[in-house]
Amino acid sequence: MTVHKSRWGWRHGRWQGLFLALLWLGHGGWVMLGPDPGRHWTGLTDALARPSQGLASRWEQWRSSRREAARSFAETRAENLRLAAELAQLRTQAAQDGPRLAEADAVLQLLGLKQQIPLELKAARVIFSTRPATFGGLILDRGADLGLVPDQGVLAPEGIVGRLWSVGPTQAKVLPADAPNASVAVMLMRSRATGVMQGMGSGRAQIRYISNQEVVQVGEAVLTSGLDRVFPRGLLVGYVGEVVPGDLELRIQVNLSAPLDRISAVLLLPSQPPLEVQPPFVAPVQKPPRKRGTP
Amino acid sequence: MRTPAPSSTRQNLLCAAALGLVFLCAPFPRVQPVVHVLLVLALAPRAGAPLASALWAGAAGWALESSLRLYPHMGGTPWADMSVALLAGWMAGRWPLEGLKGWLARLASLLALHALLVHGAVRLASGSHPWGTGWLWAALTLPLWGWAVWRLMYSGPSPRLG
């Protein structure tokens, strides 16, 4: 039997078998690729590119997050600086507005006091204080232009201040209640004993002409009696600080309730006010009629 | 008694003629599958020559698909044809023919296998597609073309016998 060999030493049968296997397998592989062979290459390239795409996306995400963080940090820092500047500005403004707010509070208190006293009260602002000097007092910014006359009572929300001593065209001088030459007709709240209060300086005064027989307690409130026709009855003057029995009368020391050194606005009573004033009549609020059957 | 194998020249000539008929029968969709199956199952297989069998079967498959121009991704029919032709050649070597009945029975079984394999391969290659009626016409005419091939290749005058 003759065996035919090819040029490279293989028999023809082996070459035929190899060619046949390649032919059959090639057709089978081509069939297995399916209706859209390009999708296999696309899927393969997608699968191969997926790791690099994942890395690239993570890198880009990290960069964007870092950029965002840097931007937010810069924005936060700028906002912090802006808020600090705004806070300093607000503090400065608050410091500037402090006196005005205090004055506004005082005005509000005066307004409340004005609503409680049913008299025609006038308001004025204290522009200067000469109390440390001899026969000193408080200088008001209004005078005859507001219709002020001497001996008008001067009030503060905490209590009486004094009376008008002199009135100029645009200013007026107040004689405080603690001045040595000032006197106010007062009465004790519990015993209703009346006397005359004379100033002793430094926010203190002394009540005279109260008998030894009266029982006076320290801390008792002292009110105006209205007998001097400068203040109506019942305005707060101060509180009893010390009681010393004398030969014929008690020596009662009174601490004035009005802070004479820190007053910025006052109310002025009308001249020759009535002896006693009644609080304003406030009509009670009528409730709506309840319907029958409702709880 | 074993039936002698036909000469390779006659078989190749018959295969070439059948391949030309596959192209020529393209306008006749009921005839073309029959000729195609005839070429793949009856003419192309030859014991001891698998390469020639596969080449003729593959050519038949490509001729059919290229003339049909139906599938988006061709190649399923040639692959199935080559597979069945290789199987038929191996069967011819393993179990030599002994008569017309055995020949027809072998063709019938190979025809069923071929129909299933072609459908599956085309489904793999191009996606789902209708079965068609080619397999039915091939099965109905199997006795006719089986007998004709038997007469032409196995029981006719042999060049070796003179």
What's the domain count of chain A? 2
Helical segment tally of chain A?
A: 2
SSE arrangement of chain A, N to C = HHEEEEEEEEEEEE
CATH superfamily of the largest domain in chain A: Rod shape-determining protein MreC, domain 1
By DSSP, the count of extended strands of chain A is 12
Q: Total number of β-strand segments of chain B? A: 0
Biggest sheet: strand arrangement of chain A: 1-2-5-4-3-12
Shape of chain B: globular
Distance between the termini of chain A: 127 Å
Please tell me the overall pLDDT of chain B: 89
And the CATH topology of the largest domain in chain A? Thrombin, subunit H
Strand content of chain A: 15-25%
Note the main attributes of this structure.
heterodimer, A: 295 residues, alpha+beta, 2 domains, 12 strands, 34% helix, rod-shaped, disordered N terminus, B: mainly alpha, disordered C terminus
Describe this structure in words.
Chain A is α+β, with helices and mostly antiparallel strands and 295 residues long. Chain A folds into two domains: 10-116; 122-268, Thrombin, subunit H, CATH 2.40.10.340. Helix content of chain A is 34%, strand content 25%. Chain A is built from two helices and twelve strands; from the N terminus they run ααββββββββββββ. Chain A has helices spanning 12-32, 37-116; strands at residues 122-129, 138-140, 153-156, 159-167, 172-176, 183-188, 194-201, 204-208, 221-224, 236-245, 250-256, 265-268. In chain A, the strands form two sheets. Chain A has a six-stranded antiparallel β-barrel with strand order 1-2-5-4-3-12. Chain A has a six-stranded antiparallel barrel with strand order 6-7-8-11-10-9. In chain A, strand 1 (122-129) and strand 2 (138-140) form a beta hairpin. The longest helix of chain A is centred in the N-terminal third of the chain and has 80 residues, at 37-116. Chain A is rod-shaped and about 160 Å long. The termini of chain A are far apart. Mean pLDDT of chain A is 83; it is low at 1-6. In chain B, 70% of the residues lie in helices and 0% in strands. By secondary structure, chain B is mainly alpha-helical. Chain B has one domain. Residues 158-162 of chain B have low confidence and may be disordered. In chain B, 40% of the residues are buried.
